[in-house]
């Protein structure tokens, strides 16, 4: 006798078609949403050859296992479990690249996005006149609904306004995480997309330039039922970083920008520590200066580990190794800094010019070297 599971699976395999549409669902701690989400897709996509790919960043709540349980019975359900990496944008990119269907959709896995929109989005793309369909909460007929707090709505408006101004992006909702595109477009742009943060759509549009033919469809953002939102201050900071970096035509990466900001904060930390060492501890200047340097380097290390490299975050013993290599990198950085500064000062004795050039040289060195030695992939 065949068990119901096996029977169910057999029927599903028999009905299997090469998918026309891949729905990419990034997940982090969404266990409770997995089954209802698949059920919602089954209903909404009836009559369409589809598959869904959960891209899970090794959620501690066992989201990947929950998705696999369903995948065992329904081959339209696929799971990518990423270990050692975190990041919504990166997860979306990886999901899109794992698809072989002509069309891919990206949406939240927490039922906040209206899946009944998917067939219409697909129909629009199939006409061949559009490359990207964006489900927008800000387009006529769409709404933020119950999905966002007042503070979040305010922040989201600010971010949108900035995006429109800085990037000349004509999207009503560039922060939307709900869109569908031709897979060929994703394939082409993928190497240039940032893997951190929540700004995947904005990144696609800014990177694709004016070439993309875009259409918007309104939708109402639903309230989250299970689990919590993962959008926090770091995500917002990261989004601002992308705006600035795109504004300067990708001249500087978001990472370098963040690294430089951390470096600037280090100067402040250094001065505060120096003052404390001189005044409170009554140390000799040279000793105090050395102490302050180590305090600033340590603070830079911790902040970079938390912010700049949070996707490659070091923990436990790796953190100690990382800290020591970071000290080493920074020591050489000081030499590079002083070397360049005095070289320039010899040619052109303008203190601020030489000083700035030296500091920039030190920052570039520290950034390049620490990305290879401290936060290596
Ligand atoms: N793989 C992976 N890795 N998935 C993640 C990560 C991550 O680091 N962080 C979040 N996710 C998943 C969540 O599990 C969820 O399915 C989806 O990405 C959206 O995350 P939420 O935490 O639910 O975001 P939100 O609802 O607060 O934010 C919504 O509004 C933003 C703009 O205001 C989303 O629609 C965002 O996409 C949108 O940018
Ligand atoms: Mn959500």
UniProtKB/TrEMBL annotation:
<dbReference type="Pfam" id="PF04138">
    <property type="entry name" value="GtrA_DPMS_TM"/>
</dbReference>
<comment type="similarity">
    <text>Belongs to the glycosyltransferase 2 family.</text>
</comment>
<dbReference type="InterPro" id="IPR007267">
    <property type="entry name" value="GtrA_DPMS_TM"/>
</dbReference>
<feature type="domain" description="Glycosyltransferase 2-like">
    <location>
        <begin position="22"/>
        <end position="189"/>
    </location>
</feature>
<dbReference type="Pfam" id="PF00535">
    <property type="entry name" value="Glycos_transf_2"/>
</dbReference>
<feature type="transmembrane region" description="Helical">
    <location>
        <begin position="351"/>
        <end position="375"/>
    </location>
</feature>
<dbReference type="InterPro" id="IPR001173">
    <property type="entry name" value="Glyco_trans_2-like"/>
</dbReference>
<dbReference type="GO" id="GO:0009247">
    <property type="term" value="P:glycolipid biosynthetic process"/>
</dbReference>
<feature type="domain" description="GtrA/DPMS transmembrane">
    <location>
        <begin position="259"/>
        <end position="375"/>
    </location>
</feature>
<keyword id="KW-0328">Glycosyltransferase</keyword>
<keyword id="KW-1133">Transmembrane helix</keyword>
<feature type="transmembrane region" description="Helical">
    <location>
        <begin position="324"/>
        <end position="345"/>
    </location>
</feature>
<dbReference type="GO" id="GO:0004582">
    <property type="term" value="F:dolichyl-phosphate beta-D-mannosyltransferase activity"/>
</dbReference>
<protein>
    <submittedName>
        <fullName>Glycosyl transferase, group 2 family protein</fullName>
    </submittedName>
</protein>
<keyword id="KW-0812">Transmembrane</keyword>
<feature type="transmembrane region" description="Helical">
    <location>
        <begin position="256"/>
        <end position="281"/>
    </location>
</feature>
<dbReference type="GO" id="GO:0016020">
    <property type="term" value="C:membrane"/>
</dbReference>
<feature type="transmembrane region" description="Helical">
    <location>
        <begin position="287"/>
        <end position="303"/>
    </location>
</feature>
<dbReference type="InterPro" id="IPR039528">
    <property type="entry name" value="DPM1-like"/>
</dbReference>
<dbReference type="GO" id="GO:0000271">
    <property type="term" value="P:polysaccharide biosynthetic process"/>
</dbReference>
<keyword id="KW-0472">Membrane</keyword>
<keyword id="KW-0808">Transferase</keyword>
<dbReference type="InterPro" id="IPR029044">
    <property type="entry name" value="Nucleotide-diphossugar_trans"/>
</dbReference>
């Amino acid at each position: 006798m065949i068990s119901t599971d096996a029977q169910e699976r057999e029927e599903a395999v028999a009905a299997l078609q090469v998918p026309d549409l891949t729905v990419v669902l990034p997940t982090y701690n969404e266990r409770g949403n997995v089954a209802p989400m698949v059920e919602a897709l089954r209903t909404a996509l009836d009559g369409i050859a589809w598959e869904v790919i959960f891209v899970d960043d090794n959620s501690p709540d066992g989201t990947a296992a929950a998705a696999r349980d369903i995948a065992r019975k329904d081959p339209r359900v696929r799971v990518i479990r990423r270990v050692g990496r975190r990041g919504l944008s990166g997860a979306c990119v990886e999901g899109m690249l794992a698809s072989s269907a002509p069309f891919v959709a990206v949406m939240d896995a927490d039922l906040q996005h209206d899946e009944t929109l998917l067939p219409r989005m697909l129909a629009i793309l199939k006409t061949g006149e559009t490359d990207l369909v964006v489900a927008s909460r800000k387009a006529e007929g769409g709404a933020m609904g119950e999905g966002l707090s007042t503070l979040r709505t305010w922040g989201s408006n600010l971010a949108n306004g900035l995006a429109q101004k800085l990037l000349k992006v004509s999207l009503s909702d560039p922060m939307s995480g709900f869109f569908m595109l031709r897979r060929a477009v994703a394939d082409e742009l993928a190497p240039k997309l940032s893997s951190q943060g929540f700004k995947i759509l904005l990144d696609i549009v800014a990177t694709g330039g004016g070439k993309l033919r875009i259409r918007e469809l309104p939708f109402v953002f639903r309230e989250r039922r299970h689990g919590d939102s993962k959008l926090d201050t770091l995500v917002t900071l990261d989004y601002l970083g992308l705006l600035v970096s795109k504004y300067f035509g990708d001249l500087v990466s978001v990472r370098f920008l963040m690294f430089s900001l951390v470096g600037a904060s280090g100067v402040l930390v250094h001065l505060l520590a120096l003052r404390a060492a001189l005044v409170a501890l009554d140390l000799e200047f040279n000793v105090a200066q050395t102490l302050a340097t180590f305090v600033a380097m340590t603070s830079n290390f911790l902040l970079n580990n938390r912010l700049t490299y949070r996707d490659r975050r070091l923990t436990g013993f790796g953190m100690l190794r990382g800290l020591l290599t970071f000290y080493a990198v920074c020591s050489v950085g000081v030499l590079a800094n002083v070397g360049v500064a005095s070289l320039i000062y010899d040619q052109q004795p303008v203190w601020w010019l030489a000083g700035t050039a030296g500091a920039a040289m030190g920052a570039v060195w520290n950034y390049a070297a620490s990305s290879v030695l401290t936060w290596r992939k």
